[in-house]
Amino acid sequence: MEDLFGIPAPLLFGQVLLGLINGAFYAMLSLGLAVIFGLLNIVNMAHGALFMMGAFVAWLLLDKLGLGYWWALLLSPFIVGAFGVLLEKLFISRLYKLDHLYGLLLTFGLALVIEGVFRNEFGSSGLPYRIPPELSGSWDLDFMFLPIYRAWVVIFALVACLATWLVIEKTRLGAYLRAATENAPLVQAFGVNVPRMVTLTYGAGVALAALGGVLAAPIYSVNPQMGSNLIIVVFAVVVIGGMGSILGAVLTGFGLGIVEGMTKVFYPEASATVIFVIMVIVLLARPAGLFGRA
Amino acid sequence: MSDTAITAGALPAPKAENAVAWGFSRAQFGALAAMIVFLAVAPFVLYPVFIMKLLCFALFALAFNLLIGYVGLLSFGHAAYFGMGGYIAGYSAKALGLSPELAILGGGIVAGLLGAVFGWIAIRRQGIYFAMITLALAQMVYFFCVQAPFTGGEDGIQAIPRGNLLGVVPLDRDMNMYWLVAGIFLGSFLLIHRIVHSPFGQVLKAIRENEPRTTSLGYKTDDYKLVAFILSSALAGVAGATKSLVFGIATLTDVHWSMSGEVVLMTLVGGLGTTFGPVIGAAVIVTMQNYLAELGAWVTVIQGVIFVACVLAFRRGIIGELGNLLKVKL
Fold first, then answer.
1. Which residues of B touch A101 (CB under 8 A)?
2. Predicted ipTM?
3. Which of A235, A269, A281 would best serve as a mutation to test chain B binding (most B beta carbons within 10 A)?
4. N or C of chain B: less Cβ packing under 10 Å?
5. Which of B25-34, B63-72, B312-321 has the highest mean pLDDT?
6. A287 inside 8 A of chain B by CB
7. Hey, are the CB atoms on A239 and B4 less than 8 Å from each other?
8. Per-residue pLDDT tens for B311-326?
């Protein structure tokens, strides 16, 4: 087997693939955060908890109802998205007139409640979720073995992000959304039901997080902390990318995933902190973020 | 002042003549006297170690409130300074054999230096970005503490000796330790009060109310924010350092993001931007954790519910509501 930069090629490509998978989750979560922030002006601290809920709903569907991975992929985002709509209606919608920081505090509280409930119910140790038979096994690519499920996650996440981008940039609904992000009262004056759109946007952002959770379930074990560990990194990703651009969020997410994967190969000690270090560098050089508007 | 401000100070600003002395109003003097009496009597009635724990967290919340309450900066990573203060104090007392006063001082200084660097980075962005950046930077410190050799990783630093204060007073006796902690707490409380009511503090409040206008008046707001950040993180470090000496242990719990969340909760429950709110908030949360400890993860759920309830219905906090009811500023 050949070496690249003095590192065995399978190891290098394996880590790059793992990085891509983490990047897929960074991209999906930061995309949802950006869309929610754009319209609602709140940082959804509960995003990680709802990602975790997506994975748990998938596990519950299988355990209680015998519905497998494909059903979960379809149903879990709907169920968690509906839960998000409920959260927005009951709690978050009461804060729009207040300082943005209250939204952050409220969703942090919601995250604590959701995580705590799941920890009580299921304990802190992870629950296994099997890779569906259609996607198990791996391809031999000569230079490495590619587990089919991992390739699936990367491709599916890319498609989901692109679809979100298409909806926002190319459809009439997306045009309303972008217009409301710029100036909500004006859009409302034109007869668009902005409050309902806000609610549905939150639901959609949350559904995207839940979809990420379902994708993650077979890779990581399903456990109550899986979201909170991820979400802080995603915040750093959001700071690096800036929340101005959809494609920017996706690119930053995948890019940072790869950087993290490479760091695991070349300097493993720094792999947990490399994204935060990049955040510091970006803040010093370009405070608005790579794709942010100043 | 509108209800939209992050500060709970929905009361009209106090007139200068309202202050009796040293920036304290009559009501605040009463509350201060009550607090000093409590500090003097409590160790004979209640378990001293519990009161010490409470005072450490109260100081932590006071330090945090200096930023959120008076500058309007929400730092969501204050555990970094609290935890790092604890580690530095623990390491210098145990491995370096420093005396307790130097250990606590060292914890505060290192936390202040860390705050200087992180504050310098974080004040480049405002509002929610500031919160996210401080959270991310604190997570970096957490991972650093997991790996760094001097922190003891998952085990933390254990069996930290309390030592002898100034080489003479043995702190192994809980009562001696208590008076030291009470002294640190009261001194820091008065220091923060002095800072807030100094000309410097007035500029901080001006930044909270309207930063562009403060800039236009000729103040370098970034410098003021940075100094406030350093003071806040150094005091948080002192709180963490004191706590590690009291319990003889410094662990990852104190640098974890959930600790950052807890100090936000304490301050929110007591009342953002109030003088006594953080103390009361810390007392409520620490007492609650103490009594509900056997409920395990439900404590997290309860804390989350309190968060939600405070934000939705109770934004002034206990002291803020009380002050509003009695028409005084506490």
1. 6, 74, 127-128, 131
2. 0.85
3. A235
4. N
5. B63-72
6. yes
7. no
8. 888 888 888 888 888 8
Cβ pair B306:A102 closer than 8 A: no
Q: Which of B123, B144, B311 to mutate to test the interface with A (most CBs of A within 10 A)?
A: B311
Helices (H) and strands (E) in chain B, counts: 13, 4
- Contact across the interface for A117 and B303, Cβ inside 8 Å: no
Structure tokens at B140: 């970096």
For residue A25, the tally of other CB atoms under 10 A from its CB is 26
Exposed e or buried b per residue across B185-195, where buried means at least 16 C-beta atoms within 10 angstroms of its C-beta? bbebbeebbeb
pLDDT of residue B9: 45
Residue A3 domain-assigned (yes or no) = no
pLDDT score of A141 more than 90: no
pLDDT tens per residue across span A157-189 = 999 999 998 998 899 888 888 888 888 889 889
SS3 B276: coil
Check A113 against B304: CB less than 8 A apart: yes
Residue A256 one-letter amino acid: L
- The answer to whether residue A83 sits within a structural domain is yes
A92 interface with B at CB cutoff 8 Å: no
- Nearest by CB: A99 against B6, B136, B299: B6
Residues recorded for chain A: 294
For residue range B83-139, what is the model confidence (pLDDT) as tens digits? 999 999 999 998 888 889 899 999 999 999 999 999 999 998 888 888 888 988 998
* Residue among A105, A116, A273 minimizing CB distance to B297: A116
**Predicted local distance difference test score (pLDDT) of residue A133:** 82
User: What domain range is A201 assigned to?
Assistant: 18-226
Helix (H, G, I), strand (E, B) or coil at A128: coil
Q: How confident is the model at residue B242 (pLDDT cuts 50, 70, 90)?
A: very high
Q: How many domains does chain A have?
A: 1
DSSP assignment of B175-215: HHHHHHHHHHHHHHHHHHHHHHTSHHHHHHHHHHH-HHHHH
Chain A residues touching B255 at Cβ < 8 A? none
Domain boundaries, chain B: 20-326
CA distance B301 to B291: 15
Residue A24 falls inside a structural domain: yes
Which fold, B20-326?
A: ABC transporter involved in vitamin B12 uptake, BtuC (1.10.3470)
DSSP code of A244? S
